[in-house]
Amino acid sequence: MTRVIALAALLLSLSPVGAAAQETDTEKAAARDVMRKMAELEQSLDVPGLVAKLTGPNAARDAVVARARALLETELLAMADDIATHPEIGFVEKRSVEKLTAYLRQHDFEVEMGVAKLPTAFVAKYHGSSGAPNLGIIVEYDALRGTSGPFHGDQHSAQGPVGLAVAVAISEFLAKSHTAGSVTVFGTPGEEMMPPNAKTDMHLAHAFDGMDVIVRSHSSAQTSRPAPGFGTCCMNIDGVKYTFAGAPAHQLTSWNGRNALEAVIHLFNNIDAVRSSIRPEARVQGVITEGGAAPNVTPDRTAADFYIRYPDEVYLAQVTEFVDNAARAAALATGTKVKIDHYGKDRDGISEAALAELAFAYMKKFGATNVQPQPGKPQGFEETGSVSRDIPGIGVSAQSSSAPNHTYEMDADNLKEIGHRGFTVDAQTMTAILFDFATDASYRGAVRREFDGLKALFGEYLAALKKTYTVPAVGDPK
Amino acid sequence: MTRVIALAALLLSLSPVGAAAQETDTEKAAARDVMRKMAELEQSLDVPGLVAKLTGPNAARDAVVARARALLETELLAMADDIATHPEIGFVEKRSVEKLTAYLRQHDFEVEMGVAKLPTAFVAKYHGSSGAPNLGIIVEYDALRGTSGPFHGDQHSAQGPVGLAVAVAISEFLAKSHTAGSVTVFGTPGEEMMPPNAKTDMHLAHAFDGMDVIVRSHSSAQTSRPAPGFGTCCMNIDGVKYTFAGAPAHQLTSWNGRNALEAVIHLFNNIDAVRSSIRPEARVQGVITEGGAAPNVTPDRTAADFYIRYPDEVYLAQVTEFVDNAARAAALATGTKVKIDHYGKDRDGISEAALAELAFAYMKKFGATNVQPQPGKPQGFEETGSVSRDIPGIGVSAQSSSAPNHTYEMDADNLKEIGHRGFTVDAQTMTAILFDFATDASYRGAVRREFDGLKALFGEYLAALKKTYTVPAVGDPK
Amino acid sequence: MTRVIALAALLLSLSPVGAAAQETDTEKAAARDVMRKMAELEQSLDVPGLVAKLTGPNAARDAVVARARALLETELLAMADDIATHPEIGFVEKRSVEKLTAYLRQHDFEVEMGVAKLPTAFVAKYHGSSGAPNLGIIVEYDALRGTSGPFHGDQHSAQGPVGLAVAVAISEFLAKSHTAGSVTVFGTPGEEMMPPNAKTDMHLAHAFDGMDVIVRSHSSAQTSRPAPGFGTCCMNIDGVKYTFAGAPAHQLTSWNGRNALEAVIHLFNNIDAVRSSIRPEARVQGVITEGGAAPNVTPDRTAADFYIRYPDEVYLAQVTEFVDNAARAAALATGTKVKIDHYGKDRDGISEAALAELAFAYMKKFGATNVQPQPGKPQGFEETGSVSRDIPGIGVSAQSSSAPNHTYEMDADNLKEIGHRGFTVDAQTMTAILFDFATDASYRGAVRREFDGLKALFGEYLAALKKTYTVPAVGDPK
Amino acid sequence: MTRVIALAALLLSLSPVGAAAQETDTEKAAARDVMRKMAELEQSLDVPGLVAKLTGPNAARDAVVARARALLETELLAMADDIATHPEIGFVEKRSVEKLTAYLRQHDFEVEMGVAKLPTAFVAKYHGSSGAPNLGIIVEYDALRGTSGPFHGDQHSAQGPVGLAVAVAISEFLAKSHTAGSVTVFGTPGEEMMPPNAKTDMHLAHAFDGMDVIVRSHSSAQTSRPAPGFGTCCMNIDGVKYTFAGAPAHQLTSWNGRNALEAVIHLFNNIDAVRSSIRPEARVQGVITEGGAAPNVTPDRTAADFYIRYPDEVYLAQVTEFVDNAARAAALATGTKVKIDHYGKDRDGISEAALAELAFAYMKKFGATNVQPQPGKPQGFEETGSVSRDIPGIGVSAQSSSAPNHTYEMDADNLKEIGHRGFTVDAQTMTAILFDFATDASYRGAVRREFDGLKALFGEYLAALKKTYTVPAVGDPK
Description:
By secondary structure, chain A is α+β, with helices and mostly antiparallel strands.
């Protein structure tokens, strides 16, 4: 019974993870104060009241929503079917992009191709609109890589047509009604393939600058919305590639070479060596993408690709430094050289109740199915977390399939009623949100206040984590 | 936003750990049904009512308790001080055991030394008592190994004198009052040093057979009691030693040898290789106890010592098999041989509310300080979990120090008022419990019913875990 | 000065390697008796006398040799140029084989394609010849894999035309002169690519059965011949592929998987662990040919390819067992499975002075350049060592390039005078040897006696090595 | 037969090691010019002529030699027996040193203790002698560590008495005959235990400065002498200790620690990773001297001890850098720190024929047994190579046992006739050499010329090796 004292430490380390974004006890402890302030912020906004007011009867809104629906039913669901049956993988979605941009040009959008040096990225601005608020719509179109070719098992095929219906309907409304506001469609390629993170690259190239709100859709087997706050579905991620260079030599005189395969092997060994010195919530996984050419020649070039994950970005930086040091150590020990390429990252995004709860109410109003009553984890409207930290927005997800994402079954649902109905609900919801945002200044103000508040709290949270995750002190060996 | 589906799986894997013994989601899920039945069992026993009745006024009990207190104050606190100032480490506690057994013999106890082949283990039975219930008292006496010699920083020095006061007082009472019942004192050495687990060895040697209840005391910085159920403070543990034999050779002709140091090194490497294929709650830690003799000779003998921990014993078996296979693989790869010695284990024990809540009430009644209102995690009355699975009992822990366990400060408190007061409260509480147990058949029945119920539920829990922890299927490589 | 005694052991282990096939001291010691007997055998044959007699004036021989030369100059050097400029890599040499076999059919050879299930292997027998001696001619035709496509940097392009000139000239002679004897041409594909070892596979399929002698040519930057005995240029080799199967899992729940990448990594680690327990002449080198698919999925399939080399095949077996055990241990430690595929091997071949010295004398007679006066290491007439252990033969190598093998410069020399001249010398030499072998029974007898003697001594040598390479005894760990 | 070209490279790498100090082909190639010059140098000295002249009849010499023998027979063999039966291990040879220095003081030597901060090192100078030449005598006295205590299995027990007999006899002669010259006895402790290298430390402390020649004896199972040149028995050696510091943590929260055991394990792994990138003659072997304290605490301190060997010191520096980098990489990867302690080294020494051949002739003259006709490998008169590079000298080794060094049988021979006779031959030989050196200026000149010539050639050799051992160029990874 000598271990009673250890109990407290153990419980602290293993005790409950909140329903919030904080997945570990350490994060929860660090976030306690922030969570309290966040609850106060949310209470001060009276989102339920806002939502009740906005979703009440409104003929003007209903007309714009009906227009979006009509565009889908007459033209754009057919385009979605067409893209679904001509799948193209990330960064080579040429045919899909041509379909989408041709339609946008026909409807008075000016299209800029090759944004951020990505050939299949585009930004399309409506000619007739002007001034703030700046309304953004993100659309994706890349297919998944399947064992028997590309397929649209994540239904990105419909995102473009859905977004186009919203963009055209709301643009026409703004122009016709002389309501202030500009509409921009962002074509973001290759979501399924980092590197590069297309949205992050486009954001760094200032493509999204000036947007006041951004909406988008995404396929789902259920109708849901995120809780307000900051978070991500599947941990913060660093994508890193390590390339080693050695010196070749014939096997018979291997001492004349430097072995890059030993280097990449020891990258993995070095990571394994510190797994028990890293918090257990970390997930570090890699593959060897180049493992040497011929068995009778000392390999002089090898490479590995890693996804490094941790629930928060602060400790993730420590984990990634461990992995980078593992690579540097492998090079040092083997007499090789290493190039470290931090090629991509996913981070916590920010989600706002003012947008999420309105979207949720509209989805239900427009007939969404398999509705999840409880909000999910906070998460931004795009997977990189880079854009959603700077610009408020909402990813709309009405049920559009009875199958999980990334399946052949979800691909099949692209062409079925369940798909078409979900796409239509998404388009109606996005249109209604943008209508409210463009026409109701107090709603815009609420969205802004919530976003600014959450962003500040996110900063406080990160600062608290930084204080928490101290690095153990190592003295000099004697 | 492609990872929405993964959310459910992730939340399942990382979601809250209960306040109960189940530390992981998997365990919680497996235990759900068992927890419900356990709540029903506890409710059916009406422990609060039992405790209220027993702790009410009772002159006979008060007299026996006063006798125990008097023994301490006149003789046995002095003996505790003496043992505290003559510390002896585990399995060589000769002087301490002589003091204790001499006292027991003086008070009509018959002492058997060397139980279970442990020279400093003993079992002492009171001559005058007879028949059931069989009342057991466990006492420890080994000191900690400090950098400047042994010291009693866990206050085992007082356990003997406290237990002797209880044993003598209750024995005298039974004899004098012709109450049925037998008293046995168990001297259990070397608690701080496995291997061997002395109590497990003694239990396997049938030393505790026939006991109806066992009490013991332990030092603490707070007054607390465990919740009912099954659990342990710090995970289930396997202690394993791996010894490798190779063939020696001079460094200059190392191919004539087989390197046992490489073998033990690869034991660690092999474990690291599967850390990410083992559930993250596992804790596997080892040291190299023999790492080779001379740098110019191929090491032909090495050894490592491991503690392997997991929250439950079912998955622990899988983890330990990974480690054993790591050793077998290391031997296979290096052409050496390995001996695997599973030298010790700690397992979940069983704790009963009928004993724990009565102890808690008495401790408060007798003036215990720093009282923790909430019960702690379930855990048996001894650290191996072996005895407490078979025999009901309670470890009594009134505050006896202001410092954490295993400190020089707690050692100092051995001789201070805070220590003496805590030891006295422990002795009074243990005496009162045994008095109640010996004199109140309905209380004995309640303890028994609770124990049998918990033991059955523990079996159900383990069976549920066995169904849960399936091993991934690995197909044949093609 | 304590290390004086170690001196003897050290000198033994590091002392001189002979100019003979025995590359290590251990081999030299084991071969001492065999070498003495071999010297006696060679002396008994009086090869210089034989060579002097055979290379003296002989009009019949000169006519056959002139015919071979004429065939080259009128047709076959052009075919060599054509094949050189239409390079095809191993096992898909369709066009080259069509050219060769068409020519053979035109000259009364019956061609069997697809020998040993190798589509581009063939055996062509001359219609008109009959009876013993059976004269074999091996020809190769596969090109090297270059970074910018296949190329004939090893001049296999000329082997076919050279061999055809010899085959046609000697066949015509046998038929015309009614000399007993049969001529067979063996088309052996893919020499540069094991697996499979085409010649070994053909030999196991009994393609070479019954041959009394085999000749072939090979490009070289010098004119040389091997010493008599047994050996190989570049150690005995085992080619082995290791394929690991695990179980896939998402990175986030990696404990549901078994990691095949860790397995293949530990294959390498396990090999490195025993490098210092293996004799230093061993060369073990591998590459990872499959290193996992995606960084966010536990790799469930990986593979590695190894060349394992040692100067002799007896200790090589121990080395290969170390590597196989490394793979088995990697699978055991990681919970994966491994498939071990011993896909190819090169072994010591046998070379005879009676053939080599005669070839050497003829090459000089026919104008070969860059002549190396000393014989090289013993080695068989083909690289696998499988055929040359069973059938006497000679690989003829007159200088045909000024550049090293496997270079673009040697490829260029295919079309130049240095190439054409070397090919012609090779063809003349091979023709003359077969003429002598067919027409001179005493020479045939000498070749046979030498071969039988060497083969028996090779067996004695291997038996001696088996006694030498004992495995260190490893006792049970205590 | 594609590998013909590789033959040359292979033969170069594996071909014969000379009987000289150059053990590898690379060294032999680098030494070719130096070897030629060395042969010229030796020829110019006419050592056989010198030896014939000196070993001729000489009554004065015979008298001194007889005095040395008498001292042994009357007193000093008894002292050798006494020391042999009171063995003391290195650096604590107090009793042995007291016996030796007491005797020296009795014979008019002034003794300085604690030279180079080594308590059992001493320098003893004869009072009566003066001026050049300065004659040095080295004596050792440490015993071996046996499994059942210290023992004199290397007969260092006799070195002191033998050296004392020489020192006293020659001192008395110089004084009595008024011959110029000074005698110094160097007591060098702990030869069997580096660190420290006592002789190197004493040399760095200038203890040997000014000596013109140094003699010493050593036990042996044969009578032999080294060839002239530079070399060492068992490769050049670096002794290095690596100590790692991490941060401790409880096993349950291991992420709060940094694991020094993983660091030392990866030191070994990193070395294994480059074994195939290091020339195969290297021998790198280590042991883990500290492998962690308790299995439930992250080890925060570990250590390893290595002997790193290569036939020459130039490439050895590259090997040692590999090992040092392995340690640095292990620290980098594990977040620990490492201390690298290059605690000792053995290097090629210089041996002179003028001394060795004279010693050999005298040993035979004085009745040495088991005489080896061929000179052994060049090597200095002490094992570190540090003193013998700066000062000419000779280690005299007449057979003194029938058993190998470092055996209990050799210890037993200490007390037998074979031991006593060998010690006597050593003492007579050393006395005769010093007599010749002191009395024959032309001999002194020859020794000096040879030494200076060899030292210059050694420098040339090292310079040639430096040019040979280039490090492979590793380009930047792309």
